[in-house]
């Protein structure tokens, strides 16, 4: 694998030792501490805390960074993801860039090299937050945003966690933008998805969901095979101009052949129809099912192909490899890192062939 002369941006995080101890004292606490972040020669006052769920227990921590500097009007919050469970450290970025090619709004991201209090912390993925600034940067009107934060965000009346009736219809979601009326509208969405009669669903659901954008998102989750992505790791945005919900991907590291624990996931694990109640009901409508099949057929000949994706995979590997060698948490696994090239390339080939073979399932 050739070395690349281009350099990753260097981010320097400075946290008072007392605050470092405070963060480590309770890794599950969401309260941030004051810090300073230097990036691109600019030094900013920030608030920093750990982020994620199971990843907080990993030795290499991920961070949520909130900016205090008044001049940073278009960057309120970013995430620095450790990508610890992904041996390649590129799956999240590869997935989000694929979604953009599918016509789905997704967070901007780039790999950076992070130091904390002068010591190397390693390669991180700087990930844009999906919030009002995300909307502004894309010239989207301000509307409510809800994060799907756990498996109960399955568009169902039944909990995916304990398989009982949900205590609240918006269980599984965390409001990022909006107010209590936004929460009530979300509850109405979930209720409608589950109670519209089958004969009327194809007509009435158009009053709630941007179908074309949902099908493009569904194609992206099916392509990348993010098993958890159907019931969490997405953001729901209500566009006030159309009154329709759109869906954005979020945190797609458990993709391209590995699960959330970093274990190998067979290329045929997720069916071509995907999962969750909303997908099942949408694809039960013959018109939508036909549109989804035509969309997949087109994308399987253009975007989701080894010819199109393999150079992107190789480029990302070449970009970060010199820095993985400097990553105190990853340099001992550099051989595993390099083997991930073939793991991802083989997944793309096998997943594409599987999906092509199962297009007839959508007839």
* Number of discrete domains: 2
Helix percent reads 25-40%
Oligomer: single chain
With strands numbered from the N-terminus, the spatial order across the biggest sheet is 1-2-3-4-5-7-6
Shape: globular
In short:
It comes from Alicyclobacillus dauci. This protein has 363 residues and is an alpha+beta fold.
How are the secondary structure elements laid out?
Elements: E1 9-15, H1 17-25, E2 33-39, E3 42-50, E4 63-67, E5 77-81, H2 91-101, E6 109-116, E7 119-128, H3 132-137, E8 145-148, E9 173-177, H4 180-195, H5 198-204, H6 211-224, E10 234-239, E11 244-249, H7 277-283, H8 286-299, H9 306-324, H10 334-357
Parallel strand pairs: 1-6
Antiparallel strand pairs: 1-2, 2-3, 3-4, 4-5, 5-7, 6-7, 8-9, 8-10, 10-11
Helix pairs in contact: 6-8, 9-10
